[in-house]
Amino acid sequence: MTIAMDRDALNAFLARDFPQVAGSYRVESVGPEGLVARLVVDEGHLRPGGTVSGPSMFALADLAIYCAILSRIGPVGLAVTTSASIDFMRKPVAGVDLLAECRVLKLGRVLAVADALIHSEGLDEPVARCSMTYSIPPK
């Protein structure tokens, strides 16, 4: 597997093309086994009951899987989510960053399928699992 974009290239791409995620989401590592992305949890990500909101976890999974695919195909800004499924399995720890560990399961010319496990940093048990399919536009 060839890495088309490393951590620094992906974070630069996000800062340039998606400035709305700056400061909250970032790519931590990229390698042949997959990608790890971080949600820097702050008050804006919390919901009543002292937990990270579902939309924040979904956004982390979507961003992480998008970046995992771009790490393989390069900066294709118009690759889009076509299907998504997320299972919320346990309550994340409030005030603790979340990490999404992603794997690209299939990378075709038109579609890519990937999954992500989301953990509260420092804990082994996942808080959510997500599977997504992305459409890759023609060159």
Automatic annotation (TrEMBL):
Pfam families in UniProt: 4HBT
Domain of life: Bacteria
InterPro entries named in the record: HotDog_dom_sf, PAAI_dom, Thioestr_dom
Residue span(s) of domain Thioesterase: 49-124
UniProt key word Metal-binding: no
GO molecular function: acyl-CoA hydrolase activity
Swiss-Prot/TrEMBL keywords: Hydrolase
Matches recorded under NCBIfam families: unchar_dom_1
Protein name from the UniProt record: PaaI family thioesterase
